[in-house]
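User: I'm putting together a teaching handout on how sequence relates to shape, and I'd like one worked example. Could you take ROK family protein from Carnobacterium inhibens, show the sequence you're using, and then write out its predicted structure as C-alpha cells right after it?

Assistant: Happy to. First the sequence, then the C-alpha cells directly below it.
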Amino acid sequence: MVRGTFQLMKSVNKSTVLNKIRQSGPISRAEIAKVTGITPPTVSSIVKELMDEKLVVESILGESQGGRKPTMLLLNRNDHYVIGVDAGSDSIKACVSDLVGTILVRSELPLQAHTTIDSFLAVLIQAIQLVIKEMGVEGSKIFGIGIAMHGVVDVAAGISLYSANSGLRNVHIKEVLENTFDLQVIVENNSRAMALGEYWFGDYGLLKSFAVVNIGRGVGSGIIEEGKLRYGAQEIAGEIGHMTISLDGEKCSCGNQGCFETFVTGDAIVRRAKKQIPDAPDDLTGEKVYAFALKGHTAYQKVLEEIGVLIGIGIVNLIHAVNPEKIVLGGGVMKSHDFLMPSILATIQQRALTEKARKNTLITLSRVGDDATVLGAAALLLTKLF
C-alpha cells in the first residue's frame, strides 16, 4: 500500500470516528468499533489523537456489559469554536458556536439602505469583531468563519457575485476577512447554509436526500444528498425561486417573468391582499396580513390559503425534479404556517405524480428556526472537520 493511500484511509477513519462521536455521544470505543467496522485498536489510536487535539473528552462511565464499565466519549465543547454569520438584506447577524451548535454569544448590526461594498464589509467585520471580543477566546481556538450570503456566490473564490436584495456585485468577502482575521473563511449562499444548519442541528436522523426551502423576501432552497450539499454543474441547484410558474407573470428581480418567487414572498402576499381586499391599509405588511388572519378576518385568511396553494405547487415541482425524502420549510413567510400548511399539504396530495410521492415525501417546518442560517454558516467549517 502506498503511503498516500494509507494516509487517506487514516483520514477517512478519523473523520468517521469523530462524526460518530458527534452524532451518538456519549459513546464507548467498543460501540464505535461495532457500528463503524473499524478495528478496536484503530479506534483506540484515533481516539487518543482526537483527545490530544482536544476535540474529544472522556465522560461518565457507561453501562457494563459483563466486564468493567466502559468510558464514554463526547465532543469537547469547551476548547474549539466556529463563527457563523448571516449576512441578510437588512442586518448582519454573527455568532460564536461550539462544535454541537450551541450559540454562546451573538451580535446583530443593521445595514444601511442602498449600502456600498465598503460599508457592507465594514459592518460585516464589526459584527464578527463584537462576538470575538465578547467570547474572549484565542484565535487558535476558532476553526474559522462561515458566511451565509444572499444571492449568487462563487464558493471556491469566496465572492458574492450578485445579491438582488442589496444590489451589490463582486464582493470579495473571503479575501477581505481572511486578511483581517487570519482565519479560514467559507462563503455560501444563504439558503444552502440554512439547509446545512437544519441538517446538522435539526435532529432529523440519517437521511439520504434532504431539502430545505427558505421563503421570505426571496425564495431559495438547499439540497443535501448523502450528507453533502448539492451544487449542480453550474452551481445553481436549488434556485427554485426562479422556476417559471407563469409565462406572462410579474417581472422578477432576476429579469425573467413569472418566477415562483414573484408569487409567494412577503411582498407577493401584500400585493395579493391589496388587490383582493378593498379596505387593506396602505402600510400593509406580510406580518400584518398574518395578524389580521389571526383575528379572524376571513379575507386575509383566504389570501394566505391561496399563497399556500402556490407554495404547494412549487414544492410539487421540487418533488418531481429532486424527489427528496424530506422537505423542510422555513423563512419569514412560513411564520404564517397555521394558514399556509393545510393548503400546501392538500396541493401536494392533489398534484404529486405518484402515490408513493404523495405518501412518503415528508414535509415539515424548520426545527432550528431563525438560527438555521447563522448555524448553517458555522456548520460550513464543521463539514471540513467532520
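A couple of points you could highlight for students: Residues 205-366 form a domain with the Nucleotidyltransferase; domain 5 fold (CATH 3.30.420.40). The chain is about 45% helix and 20% strand.
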